[in-house]
From TrEMBL:
<dbReference type="InterPro" id="IPR016166">
    <property type="entry name" value="FAD-bd_PCMH"/>
</dbReference>
<dbReference type="InterPro" id="IPR036318">
    <property type="entry name" value="FAD-bd_PCMH-like_sf"/>
</dbReference>
<keyword id="KW-0285">Flavoprotein</keyword>
<dbReference type="Pfam" id="PF01565">
    <property type="entry name" value="FAD_binding_4"/>
</dbReference>
<dbReference type="InterPro" id="IPR016169">
    <property type="entry name" value="FAD-bd_PCMH_sub2"/>
</dbReference>
<keyword id="KW-0274">FAD</keyword>
<dbReference type="InterPro" id="IPR006094">
    <property type="entry name" value="Oxid_FAD_bind_N"/>
</dbReference>
<protein>
    <submittedName>
        <fullName>FAD-linked oxidase</fullName>
    </submittedName>
</protein>
<feature type="domain" description="FAD-binding PCMH-type">
    <location>
        <begin position="10"/>
        <end position="180"/>
    </location>
</feature>
<dbReference type="GO" id="GO:0071949">
    <property type="term" value="F:FAD binding"/>
</dbReference>
Length: 452
């Protein structure tokens, strides 16, 4: 991987709530670095502060990143951590392969996909991205390069998958791809008139399809609460050759002075999108890019939320409480006068991740995003947190930039095991304000107990 010279760059997260130039460092700076001074940085698609270390410097992994090898016979690929998933797909699709797990954007780096243990629309079948990882080379501040797998350096392997870049810098990784008849998708789509229409059919949908995701009209009320559109899919037997998507024709080059995704605009959009969907199941072939990564077609779409950025709230909660918890979350957002553009509901299955800190767990996950309106938005997010906590759920750390240390611990009681494997040279703003605060509190309590 090419060296990256130290310098200043924007290195924003996707939420854009906190924006200012951040300092960069080369990978060579890792060896012998001061405690907490560095953090690897991929492509900035994490929504919050898990990709920031404003008290130190970032190690950008995109420059010079390349795919090192690909075997079309076995579907095994090795690439540098800074390679984008879109670059992997462009190489492997003509050979009849696809990622076993792909998140909602292909503009994620391979290292970021591992560090956040991302999930896709087929968690009920394939689990998380970490399930596809065979091995990776991990650089640590003691100057060592460790090959980590299920058989070698196993504790580091588990801690790094979902470890948010804190155990070391992934230099390269080897993953397993899946063979598909076509990357394009045979999509089954229909609309449902309320949240009951989703939960009454999701068992059959997931049993029949590789992929499923539901868009929810977060603004619908009363008997229409939770209405939405189901998008189920499978790789098409007759889908034809898959082509790399053309460069985006649409772009949001700068943030408008106001939030364009407000209640007025979203009410009209939601009604049109819902009514356009068929009442009964309709099936047809759609391109892989439009099914898996529709928003990648609009460069900088996150700027539509205005100059103050956005918060995304993604939670997971147990299946036996899912219907009432989903209703409570939707009603809570409505009661605060908030409007969510991307409201997505999916099932998480029982396939276990090899990662120590993986966010997905059996149940359902609801994603909501909101323009940052300051204190009133934070108050609403706190209220959403309480609903998730009461249901025995958890929040997604790489979508977060404000959860409390207590909610973090409730979501990830195993955090101390990651802290034990954290490279002392690496730190993020997220870890500092959550695990760091908990660790400081525990140490203070032990000191006080010793004094007594």
């Amino acid at each position: 991987m090419a060296n990256v010279m130290a310098g200043a760059g924007r290195y924003e997260s996707w939420g854009r709530v906190v924006r200012h130039p951040r300092q960069a460092a080369s990978l060579e700076a890792l060896k012998g670095a001061a405690p907490g001074g560095l953090l690897p940085f991929g492509n900035g698609r994490s929504y919050g502060d898990s990709c920031h270390n404003d008290g130190g410097r970032l190690i950008p992994l995109r420059p010079g990143a390349a795919i090192r090898s690909f075997d079309p016979e076995t579907g095994v690929l090795t690439a540098d951590a800074g390679v984008l998933l879109s670059e992997i797909l462009a190489l492997v699709m003509p050979h009849g392969y696809f990622l076993e797990v792909t998140p909602g954007t292909a503009q994620v780096t391979l290292g970021g996909a591992i560090a956040n243990d991302v999930h896709g629309k087929n968690h009920h079948r394939r689990g998380t991205f970490g399930c596809s990882v065979i091995s990776f080379l991990l650089m640590t501040s003691d100057g060592q390069a460790r090959l980590c797998s299920s058989d070698a350096n196993h504790a580091l392997f588990e801690a790094t998958i979902g470890g948010m870049g804190l155990t070391g810098v992934i230099e390269s990784a080897t993953i397993r791809l899946m063979r598909v008849p076509s990357a394009n998708v045979r999509q089954t789509v229909f609309r449902f008139g309320s949240i009951d229409g989703y939960f009454d059919r999701i068992d059959a949908i997931d049993a029949a399809h590789e992929y499923s995701v539901a868009w929810i009209d977060q603004l619908a009320r009363g008997a229409r609460l939770g209405r939405g559109v189901m998008l189920a899919g499978d790789h098409a037997e007759d889908g034809g050759p898959a082509r790399a998507p053309s460069p985006p024709k649409l772009a949001v080059p700068f943030a408008p002075p106001v939030n364009l995704l407000n209640r007025l605009t979203l009410s009209a959009f939601n009604a049109a999108y819902y009514l356009r969907a068929p009442k009964r199941e309709a099936t047809g072939i759609v391109s892989w890019a439009s099914y898996f990564h529709p928003l990648d077609a609009v460069t900088g779409w996150n700027r539509l939320y205005g100059p103050r950025g956005l918060y995304q709230h993604q939670s997971v909660y147990p299946a036996d409480r899912a219907r009432e918890t989903t209703i409570a979350l939707l009603e809570c957002a409505q009661s605060h006068g908030a409007a969510s553009f991307l409201t997505v509901l999916k099932r998480f299955g029982t396939v276990r991740s090899p990662g120590l800190m993986s966010f997905p767990r059996p149940g359902f996950t609801l994603t909501l995003d909101f323009a940052n309106s300051g204190a009133q938005t934070l108050k609403m997010l706190d209220a959403l947190d309480e609903i998730v906590l009461a249901a025995g759920g958890a929040l997604n750390p790489y979508k977060d930039q404000r959860m409390s240390p207590c909610l973090f611990e409730a979501s990830f009681p195993q955090w101390r095991a990651l802290e034990a494997n954290r490279d002392p040279a690496l730190m993020s703003d997220f870890w500092r304000r959550t695990a760091g605060a908990l660790d400081t509190s525990e140490k203070a309590a032990r000191r006080a107990a010793g004094m007594r």
